Task: structure prediction
Amino acid sequence: MTVDLRSLRRWLHSPSPVSPVPPSTATGRTALRWEIFLVLAVTFGTSGVRAALRLLEAATTPTRLNEQTTTLNAPVSTLAWLDPVFQLISSGVLLAWGGLAVLLLLRHVPVRLAGLTDPDRPGLPRPRLRDVLPGAGLAALIGLPGLLFYVAAVKLNLSRQVVASGLDSSAGDLALLVVNAWANGVAEEVIVVAWLVSRLRQLQVPWAWVFAASAVLRGSYHLYQGYSAGLGNVLMGLVFVYFFYRTGRVWPLIIAHGLIDTVAFVGYQVLGGVPGL
Result:
């Protein structure tokens, strides 16, 4: 299979709904650069560095990578009434990250977020019914191949065994898993796609580098799970940025991410693990 480089260049430079106006002054551009640095420093940029160090730590221990485990939704308190509070606080922090990115996009060097806000429907950002079907389609496109990729990676010693939930199977704990799944979806897709892509385009970064930056960032903060998690999420990131590039909408990405994590978290807890592992 050959790649037509001219066709690839035309595709990367083809019109996109994502065309935010760049700042008009050098001061504005400097402010955007500082915004990118600071937001990533307190959100997924730092998470990516920590995840890479966790993978380095795991790779240098005598135990094989596929014999190690990592838990995504672990209990953080031995008190039955207090742990849900901590879980909700963690979800709230993720939602606050996403909210901060939206606020910055709307107030600081503003852009029109076609994927989150609609000038014809004033008020808080909310999805439309038309976002559900593409969101579900993306979830199916990513979810099942992702599970098969994970199973193969564990067999090949490229991934830790991921425990999607360390909570109980009670109705309350399952509800907490659903809340966390959708909080992940909001934070990741708003920051890693809508905010980062818009800001980089305002700085007139070429689309090829925008794709790479968003996808690599997404892959980086999943590295604690293993090499394959980093690669798999880079590929997922490329698909999601392409969708945003073509449509300018981020709600379907939030819906897709929320569905993928809900099935992973709740399904793992109900089924008691991943079949075949």
User: Anything to note?
Assistant: The chain has one domain: 25-111+123-271. Residues 25-111+123-271 form one domain. The beta strands are 69-71, 161-163. The chain has nine helices and two strands.
